[in-house]
């Protein structure tokens, strides 16, 4: 299913990591043609000054947002809270808008307010946006022109828990999910906490309770249950490894869990079930996913207690941000869902 | 409280990481004089051939176990399962025996058999050994001559959970504890899994269910409750960061948790409560503990649900192995409990 | 310049890192169809058991070399010294043979013997092979059916030094080149030295003098001069950063060096000159090149002494091995030289 | 040789890495009593807020420099260029002044001006200061009250090259020395370049020519020869590995090099010659030296050309800064030269 359609793309906020990653993917996408990238701080500089991997591959220079012109697709890669208040100005510039921030993910303004600490600036717009998780919303994404891409930690939690919750085989205990997150998730601006001598090699719990992505998981996951997220910084730059603990009923076997994942994710192009009983690659590992759009999912069962430990791994900037943005756009336009997302990842890496 | 006593020490299995770390600490200890170190593989080589940090600080050569002579203190740093079957031969060589393996930690042979997969080879000896966790067993350690040092992951779990469980304020939910563990915990022998290109930067769940140290935690922690341990390899060489989730009753406040930790650990020389509400060092981080005998403990409370996330960090080879072995010996002999354990750790590291 | 030609490929020794990397690249190459991968140790296992990045992308199983069948292209990814002695058996199986080892790189048997410590087993074959460095041998590679891919450290040294030496502006002093090399360069077999706790974070000079790749540099670089290579292991998995020091004549300016590199490498698709006077990406850095076929080259001049420090960075497994193998094959077959080599690399990574 | 003398210490600029490291060492030093630590930015905060390793070990709070009171020893840990202009105010506060910056290292104002880009602000003071390299200036340090501690990269270069140059067996070729440097050497302030996602895993040449420490090496090393330093950032936090290339005369053997190092450094307490012909720890590696005051030195000889590759490794913050400051002070006061510097370093680390 190849298409000869070719859409122009403007990336707003393109000096950050999310925008830069969308740019990288779009440059190699057969149906996309990036024509504009904005950065207030770097306006006038070539994009490869900030994203040195693109040297020789992209001759664009950053421009200021004020100089933005029309494009078929507007990709908003702004800090959380920046896009919602001025969404009208982008609506006039492009038919399709993809927002990589959290601004339009939460449909319930009360849930948004609880986790983001303030009223949503444009609640009347929320219903226009499709939550950009292709595995859960493929049908709604078809033809969509407003895509609010799912959060990275939320994606790893949702994709791990969705099958068993959808099938209704999770018992009513609290669910604990722990995310091990790379440093790129905190963005491209240096801080005391991101200073290399302080951050390298550290294992730092940065959000033991109250992580904002809880709101997305509550919204997207079937059923009602207490869900608790804890996020820990790791020495990696990219990647999230999430472990989540659920309990299944007596008699529910490891084979049943296998079947559940197969039933729900059988044909998904970017979900792989990883559970091998020998060798060194037995479970998902984000180390293997840098640059790829895969979400690898594995599990292990404690037969004595019925606990199932579900593990998921993603690259936070690809399957957690720009990659599923591209995947969502591919679905929205009816292109090959894999277009632009073919990188296999490296071994060793 | 200084002592002029000076005991001779023989380290059996001194080419591994546990034995090497005991050697490092013992060389700088005012009351210890290491006279023998065994290694079957490296017999005849200087100890600094294997432990290059000791070059210029130790002129001993490895000898074979068959050449072991008497010493005041025999430190067994053998692979799990190696010491118990031949413990009689070591009993004849020294008055005090410290075992760094798991062989004598579990008092209940049935619990041992469940987690170690075979009957204990010397169950009649188990009652002679004191479990080497100074914070829980200081009184039994005084004068002890058989010390079975606590396991590293077990130590991080036990020290995190002990105060609230001892005070009886943990509600009856399942307790999930997740340990992020450095590569040194797997020992000094290279494997496919420890090959640098495969292991560097990986986040690899290696024991999602059924971790053996669960047995120690069940034995040592007050109360009866389901306890679930999950262990994940991290890119660090040393260190364990454990997060554990418990629920406290309605009305139990953050201040109450503070008080609980203070009440139980108030005077402990190697426990530090780390909970800071600004800056970059807000919670325990094993990065700061390499080489030290501290267990740093922090917590955060989710007031809405009563969940308390307790975090503990240790150096698995020091507070998790050789360090609390020295601390236990200091207590057993009535020496300054801090003797030989004064290293502050590095910042940055 | 696209071609619809599609050649079958057999990779011999496909469980190592070089073979695995060729496999990764070939799977995404429009003109290649991998039909066989051999591994004596892993015969019968799916290739993704060893190369987990290929899960879902390749359904081949490893077979034994004894079961090798004919293919259009035979890629030899065997340990150094393994291919030369049995080259005749591979000649019967495929028209085009690409050797990733050192066996056929050196044309002068005496030079080979000096650096490899033994007589070449098939010296009569040496003249059939083209040295697989596309920048220096593009013309010989056109139509070639025997390609001996250049060594990784050699490539970084040769591409750094070639322009100034070719233009004859290097003065007759000794040339010192230092390579900082990732752990993957030592191959896929675990050793004591590659054990993660020993290797992680280490900076280990592993070949201060007498590096074998000196032979390639001597053979390929114009002029006669003493060349000294020193190789140091770094904490990275992939990548080589080489710094080389040469002296240019009085009056030769920084602008002249620029011109020299432009003159020699002006149209090269995989050479980028990186020399920026602000920002954080001023010179080549292998961190930015993981998975790519680029050789980034930079330099700085000490005007006072005429010393020029030339820096080059590559991914040792791509531009240093499998990538320029593919590039060489593209040239040999007249395909788009960039085919299969489009990955931009990641930022951040 | 123990002393019961106990001097009060004030550390000026104690929130940086150099000052923090001096504080760590001084807290464990039998003859030192730290009474004041200044930090303009952190005045009023406990020192462990910035240096979390000192939690529980130091109850001091930072004060402003304006509040500095007299002390026996004033340690200046200010940015380069800050101390020289206001040295008079510190002279009034303490008898002994140790400067960790570059301000008083260079005796020749012209050399200073060449490498630091401006005239020295207090040239008349330069002769009062002893260059704080204990191995070269032990005699001058005895009784000294003005100690200008040697620079970290300079120290690794000087200690590597000193023996052969002192003995006059280095031929008159240019000397190339390459330093691989950890991120802590750039200080405690975060920058774009130190942002973890950008810095982690990078190999970045940051000073290919013109490194300021060249001035120290020129001043301290015997003989006249062209010396060229190149500095490269590595993924480590601490440590410097320097490789330097010199040529010795025909007939000068490896054994002669051994003898030269032994002759010059035979009794040095913190110099270790590391050259082992088997195993994995054959040459100096900064990985083994974190937190220690050792300078490990090794070499390898290319018999064919007479090139000797000399390698040295240090912890830049200890033997490169605060450690040899303590060592110099120990000498100055006639204390045990090893006092406070007994940490062995960790293995593995």
Give a quick rundown of the structure.
Chain A is built from 10 helices and 13 strands. Chain A has 349 residues and is an alpha/beta fold. Chain A folds into 2 domains: 7-150 and 318-333, 3-Layer(aba) Sandwich (Rossmann fold); 153-314, Dihydrodipicolinate Reductase, domain 2.
Please provide the count of β strands of chain A.
13
- At CATH level 3, the topology of the largest domain in chain A is Dihydrodipicolinate Reductase, domain 2
Strand order of the largest sheet of chain A: 8-9-7-10-13-12-11
Quaternary assembly: homotetramer
Order of helices and strands of chain A: EHEHEHEHEHEHEHEHEEHEEEH
- What is the SS-derived class of chain A? alpha/beta
| Low-pLDDT windows of residues of chain A | none
Number of separate helices of chain A: 10
The CATH H-level superfamily of the largest domain in chain A is Dihydrodipicolinate Reductase, domain 2
The major β-sheet of chain A equals: 7 strands, mixed
Q: Can you tell me the overall shape of chain A?
A: globular
* CATH level 1 name of the largest domain in chain A: Alpha Beta
* Overall residue-averaged pLDDT value of chain A: 97
How far is the N terminus from the C terminus of chain A?
32 Å
Q: Share of helix among residues of chain A?
A: 25-40%
So, CATH architecture of the largest domain in chain A? 2-Layer Sandwich
Largest interface: A-B, 48 and 48 residues
Strand content of chain A: 15-25%
How many discrete domains of chain A?
Answer: 2
Question: In angstroms, what is the radius of gyration of chain A?
Answer: 20 Å
